[in-house]
């Protein structure tokens, strides 16, 4: 088990554990540093900090932003964010509104396909959190259309799914700049989700984002094989990027989901991030 996990989600975006439940779980697994990195939301961080005060565990304030590229998407993590930045919070509100609008349209498309779920059901599942595709996926699980959320994405909600709807997103370089303007440290999340086959294409993208101000690359990721981790370590070294990582835990119920602490960078990564941020 690792001491560091820099990619975790709570009920404030698309996780199914509250910040308190997640922190308690991470503490029970011996983690020392974790990042609460919800999608388009920092609202769970305060509760996580309160929960961490009962344990010997440090919370890194983080965020995960989705960005648009032709035919795919890139997710950008931001570490040590300033949660009091009002312009940043206003932008997050716009992103969350876009998620909700897309969710409504996806439910409409599913209904047109003969899939009997309702927006009220999705809102109940979200329970006040920023509504996203995983909440629609859970509605499909509840109604028995699929067994797991992953199946819902594969069949209906993913980019090539029958009910996919696009939403407003930044380009990757714009997301890097938004995070830099906030004072956060931008890191590319799960890079092989963007490109797994054409490594030269991946390297070109990484190089461009490094030039835009990105400081790290998610290397130690829950679903990556040892060979993939080694390859990404090489790319991070080639472009002088900080090797980051984490489980990307959502408590989703998908089979084989990586648990907190099963993937993550060494403590030296946290020390490097702190130094770059000017934190003692």
Describe this structure in words.
The protein folds into two domains: 4-84 and 172-277, TIM Barrel (Alpha-Beta Barrel), CATH 3.20.20.140; 92-157, DNA polymerase, domain 1 (Orthogonal Bundle). A seven-stranded mixed sheet has the order 1-2-3-4-5-6-7. Strand 3 and strand 4 (72-79) form a beta hairpin. The chain has helices at 19-28, 45-52, 86-112, 119-126, 133-142, 149-157, 172-182, 191-194, 199-212, 226-238, 267-277, and strands at residues 4-8, 33-36, 58-69, 72-79, 185-188, 216-221, 242-246. 45% of the residues lie in helices and 16% in strands. Helix 1 (19-28) packs parallel to helix 2 and helix 5 crosses helix 6. It has 280 residues and is an alpha/beta fold.
What is the element string, with H for helices and E for strands? EHEHEEHHHHHEHHEHEH
Helix count, DSSP H or I runs of 4 or more residues:
11
Low-pLDDT windows of residues: none
Q: What is the CATH level 1 assignment of the largest domain?
A: Alpha Beta
Task: Please tally the β strands and state the result.
Answer: 7
Give the helix proportion (percent range): 40-55%
What is the CATH topology assignment of the largest domain? TIM Barrel
Tally of discrete structural domains: 2
**Shape estimate:** globular
* Strand-pairing-aware structural class: alpha/beta
Q: Span from first to last CA?
A: 26 Å
* Rg, Å, rounded: 18 Å
- In percent, how much strand structure appears in the residues? 15-25%
Overall pLDDT confidence? 95
> What would you say the CATH architecture of the largest domain is?
Alpha-Beta Barrel
User: Looking at this structure, what is the CATH superfamily of the largest domain?
Assistant: Metal-dependent hydrolases
For the sheet with most strands, the description reads:
7 strands, mixed
> Which strand order does the major sheet show?
1-2-3-4-5-6-7
